[in-house]
């Protein structure tokens, strides 16, 4: 494995430097993001939340989409949904409102996809995500092998083809 781009300014720069598209494949049912914990607790308790930890992401999405750049992702989910995945569907109404196109793919339809997360920028810059045992984000590994990039583009297209738009998925599952 090459050196990881650690979470922080250098990693965030990836989201400001792409020209056209940023795509993420998410393959896990839960992540350890301490800034989400209180919001997840409120969601499960049915309490209101203004999601302050998400505001900088929403601002960036608004800015990027206003400039004609596109963010999209496919979330591979186990059915029935975990509490964390239900929370993710709920949160995605806000990212969708800011311009991100999120779709959902039941895990039983994703057997040909990788079992790890990645970002693909402009179909040519691949960043494989790495997590610790508790699913805390460690950083992203830039993969430069052209064959690997082509393979990940194929996986993006296959996942996108079979995934369901967020609003349709939420309605279908009464979320």
TrEMBL record:
One Pfam family linked to the record: DUF6879
DUF6879 domain sequence ranges: 10-170
InterPro entries, per database record: DUF6879 (IPR049244)
Name of the protein this chain belongs to: DUF6879 family protein
